[in-house]
Amino acid sequence: MFLGTRIYERRRQQGLTQTELAHQICTQNTISKLEKHNVAPTVNILIKLCQRLNLTLNDVFDDFDANTSSEEHQLLTNLETQLLLQEATPKTLATFKLLRPADMQPTDHLQYALVKSMLELQQGQLDDAQFTLDQVLQLTKNDATNVDTVLAYILKGESYAEKHVERIDYYMQLATHAVKEKVSLPAATLVEQLFICQALAAYHYQQQAQKVALHYCQQGLKLAQVHHSTMFMGPLSRVYVDLLRDDPAKRATFENYQKIVTLLAKVDI
Questions:
Q1: Fewest C-beta in 10 Å: which of 15, 22, 51, 111?
Q2: What is the pTM of this model?
């Protein structure tokens, strides 16, 4: 159950009026409703209010029922998407800090650890990220059919510097063997599948394994086309163009994707 009284108590402690608390977040009337009648606001408004009042989600709910768990899961999914797309901002970290893993549903622990590892990678905390990714793999039991296992392998590979090439190769090959021919892991989201395609395409391209790189490029581009998505279209198209550049039989395809690369560069996607 949402506890609007917690908002009221913290607001009064900080000496804020309802109007001051609502500034650039919502209306004064919204604050009044949630404080007096325990009417939960939208997730976006709730996050901003908690940040302003230095509260966590656990502070404003008396228990984590199915609805709260669903909201937390959606928050984690949104954070994961931002991080996979490299669109994270300081607000991403602030939102993550609102979550308390000890009070989460067991089903959310895995995604929480994965998001935590990506934030650590973004902040250059490589040793911490590797430790957290090991926790992810413990939770998945290295199940190669679990998309989080594959993501953890790729992120582990990306966490090693160039001087640890053998470790990079080890984890990227594990990811490759896990997805095999087709990137269609159970329960994988579109952004997760496209991230895996572009990561494996880039890795095998660097290894000069052109046939394998081409395969993952084609998988990713076809997936994006089917879902009318531009996610990862830039990196996938750039590798694809380089792979087709010297193939006379693919000249028309090369020219089409060269145009896409040029267009995406102009709009900075």
A1: 15
A2: 0.72
